[in-house]
Write a structure and sequence with these properties.
The chain is mostly beta strands. The protein has a 19-stranded mixed β-sheet that branches. The longest helix is centred in the first third of the chain and has 28 residues. The chain is globular and about 105 Å long. The chain starts with a helix and ends in a 21-residue tail after the last strand.
């Protein structure tokens, strides 16, 4: 080997070593308080609002990132959003298999105070410069270059406040939690559990409190199975369970049961209705088959009370739907003025010749 070649190899090795040393040094420097204060200052000079965080740590080679006590404030210093901690753990090795694996995501105490003013502008946008108009047309989405795999995501103790000035609407949720696992973008699979507690909605049209809302859904091979939804509010309780197959096709297949237990007096008060409504009602509904032409069974029990000035002792309704033919097995009303009993059929086939979701319909073709 000639001396010239030795010098070239030695120089190249030294240069590469210095580059690696500088990159590693840069990563260590970016985690220092001086570097992070400098970055925050540069960002805040470029936007009307203010972004701050206590600590941002990252290990690029290990694929770990952690952000602590981050906060976004508006131009007047108002608190818009924040989070106590965000931790992300990535696995780079799966990139050789054209997949980015998100091993773990932890989000602790995220919060947001959102408000839409009378002009329809979201306050969150005030913290950032106005978006520049796009000159080029958006290119169609051609898919991700790699598959996204999610092993675990957990969000705890989240909270949101929302106001809309035009409708005098105020909504708030004090406790939001979410967990997701077994996620795979290409396989279209994900197990999701979502829950909120202590929610409220107030406006001239509605005033209600939500004690708890739960959603548990598992998506795999184009199927939502199981699908569970529960709502506990001051107006009553609602529970939905079952499964949905072929969810990504035009006509998904359903097998769902819904149960509703409600107080009519609470509904009247919370929705500011004028007619007198008292008493409790229970409703049970099952739906099976394609949504365009399902099989369904409905049962309604009303325990008695006042319906728009009429004293009712009880109401019982049992009906079923099969191939667009509805059968009323029982429709009985007991009131102070007497008793009403009805049975019968309603033929919907000619009114909805191609199913309930088809645009062709002729309600005059109903037959009883």
């Amino acid at each position: 080997m000639t001396k010239k070649r030795k010098y070239i190899l030695a120089g190249t090795g030294t240069f590469l070593g210095l580059m690696i040393f500088m990159i590693i040094g840069l990563f260590f420097y970016l985690e220092t308080d001086h570097a992070q204060n400098f970055i925050q200052t540069r960002i805040n000079k470029a936007i009307p609002g203010t972004i701050s965080w206590e600590k941002f740590q990252f290990g690029l080679l290990r694929g770990r990132f952690e952000l602590k006590n981050a906060q976004l404030r508006g131009p007047a210093g108002e608190d818009l959003a924040g989070v106590d901690r965000v931790f992300i753990d990535l696995s780079w090795l799966t990139l050789f298999k054209k997949a980015l694996t998100i091993s773990e995501v932890i989000i602790e105490k995220p919060r947001a105070n959102l408000r839409i003013n009378s002009e329809g502008k979201l306050n969150l946008l005030d913290a950032f410069p106005p978006a520049k108009p796009e000159k080029e047309e958006k290119k169609p989405f051609k898919g991700l270059p790699v598959n996204i795999v999610l092993n675990s995501l957990k969000l705890t103790q989240g909270s949101v406040r929302y106001e809309m000035d035009a409708k005098k609407l105020k909504a708030a949720v004090q406790d939001i939690s979410l967990s997701a696992s077994d996620g795979n973008f290409l396989e279209q699979s994900l197990h999701l559990i979502f829950q909120i507690r202590d929610g409220s909605v107030k406006s001239p049209a509605i005033n209600t409190e939500i004690a708890q809302l739960q959603l548990d859904a598992n998506l795999k091979n184009g199927q939502l199975d199981p699908l569970l939804f529960k709502l506990d509010a001051d107006t009553g309780t609602l529970a939905l369970s079952g499964n949905i197959h072929d969810i990504f096709v035009k006509q998904p297949n359903l097998d769902i049961r819904l149960d509703l237990d409600t107080s009519l007096a609470s509904i009247r008060e919370n929705f500011h209705l004028k007619p007198d409504l008292t008493g409790d009602a229970k409703l049970g509904l099952t739906v099976q088959g394609e949504l365009n032409n399902p099989r369904a069974n409905l049962r309604l029990d009303y325990g008695g009370g006042n319906l728009a000035g009429n004293q009712i002792d009880s109401i019982r309704l049992d009906c079923q739907l099969n191939d667009r033919q509805m059968t009323f097995d029982t429709f009985r009303v007991n009131a102070a003025s007497g008793e009403l009993n009805l049975k019968g059929d309603v033929d919907l086939q000619k009114a909805f010749t191609n199913g309930f979701l088809a645009p062709e319909r002729d309600l005059d073709a109903l037959s009883y």
